[in-house]
């Protein structure tokens, strides 16, 4: 998807409070900015003419063959507070001089700009509640987990993800087997498989397949896998105010390769078998080509918590829209040992009970 901008750049960058001039930040669950000083609210107005359109993948390939993500330049950011400019790889951050919001001014050639954003729905308190429920559900965790001040430790960030749509056309050759009853000379009936050659073409539509654009945590895979793009809006920098956002470090070519491998591992073979039909199928060969491949860069919201326990650093992520939690935690050895002893005790009682029953019926 590409954004067709509307309005002026100045309108897109106005993040200062119109009442007192202080910094504003996007308030999760709303389409408004809230002033961090006076609390005034400013509605986020949709930019006139802004649309959400997927980019043709072939066009990107033709213009970026051989170009590595690491070789791309940084994004020029400007502070809305002191107006200092800096170059960095992030899409949203805070000024190192005055802690004001940094907003993007220019983007280097070759960098795919965000097409859409999934705005935060959960605020810090709601993310903390989700974390608390997650801790409670993991009874083997160390007791120190309950003392973590998640409300102060959580940071909000946007994770770049790629969304792909494509049409896969597969030409195959194989065999179709149909099970049929056959009466034998002795009047017995057996089921035999009658085989016949099969060949054809099947089309598979891939829609909004999500692939991570950057690895920010070892525990993010499940959240990316379960990510729903429902609620995506055309990118506007106002939704990034008060949050951080990192740039992708995985280009569309690498991301599409993952989409292709996943489709050819499960989805396409199933479609081919269904197309052949019968009770049994054999696929001798299958050749898949892709057309109408399109992609978009979407920013997905995450609440990130990093804590130190048992001499190690651990991380917990909370989906900024659904509240789904993925994370790591140190296991309490004492709790684990007690749990094992409890189960062993129950198992011993079952064994003794069964032995008593066997003895009773065999005496």
Automatic annotation (TrEMBL):
Superkingdom, natural source: Bacteria
TM ranges: 340-361
Keywords from the named record: Membrane, Transmembrane, Transmembrane helix
Name of the protein in its database record: Replication restart DNA helicase PriA
Annotated organism of origin: Flavimobilis soli
Lineage of producing organism: Bacteria, Bacillati, Actinomycetota, Actinomycetes, Micrococcales
């Amino acid at each position: 998807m590409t954004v067709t901008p509307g309005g002026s750049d100045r309108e897109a960058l106005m993040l200062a409070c119109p009442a007192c001039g202080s910094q504003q930040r996007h308030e999760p669950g709303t389409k408004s900015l809230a002033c961090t000083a006076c609390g005034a609210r400013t509605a986020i107005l949709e930019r006139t003419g802004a649309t959400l359109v997927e980019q043709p993948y072939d066009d990107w390939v033709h213009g970026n063959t051989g170009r590595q993500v690491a070789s791309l330049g940084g994004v020029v950011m400007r502070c809305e507070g002191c107006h200092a400019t800096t170059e960095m790889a992030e899409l949203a951050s805070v000024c190192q001089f005055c802690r004001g919001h940094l907003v993007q001014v220019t983007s280097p050639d070759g960098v795919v700009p965000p097409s859409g954003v999934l705005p935060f729905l959960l605020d810090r308190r709601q993310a903390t509640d989700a974390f608390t429920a997650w801790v409670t559900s993991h009874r083997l965790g160390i007791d120190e987990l309950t003392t973590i001040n998640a409300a102060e430790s959580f940071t909000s960030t946007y994770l770049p993800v790629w969304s792909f749509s494509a049409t896969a056309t597969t030409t195959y050759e194989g065999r179709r087997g149909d099970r049929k009853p056959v009466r034998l000379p002795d009047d017995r009936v057996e089921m035999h498989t009658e085989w016949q050659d099969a060949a054809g073409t099947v089309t598979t539509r891939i829609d909004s397949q999500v692939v991570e654009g950057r690895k920010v945590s070892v525990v993010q895979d499940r959240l990316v896998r379960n990510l729903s793009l429902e609620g995506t809006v055309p990118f506007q920098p106002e939704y990034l105010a008060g949050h951080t956002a990192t740039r992708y470090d995985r280009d569309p070519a690498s991301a599409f390769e993952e989409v292709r491998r996943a489709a050819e591992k499960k989805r396409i073979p199933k479609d081919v078998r269904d197309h052949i039909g019968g009770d049994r199928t054999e696929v001798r060969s299958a050749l898949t080509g892709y057309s109408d491949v399109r992609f978009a860069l979407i920013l997905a919201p995450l609440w990130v918590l990093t804590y130190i326990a048992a001499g190690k650093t651990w991380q917990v992520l909370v989906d900024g829209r659904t509240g789904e939690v993925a994370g790591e935690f140190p296991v309490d050895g004492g709790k684990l040992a007690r749990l094992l002893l409890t189960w062993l005790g129950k198992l011993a009682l079952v064994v003794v009970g069964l032995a008593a029953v066997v003895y009773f019926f065999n005496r």
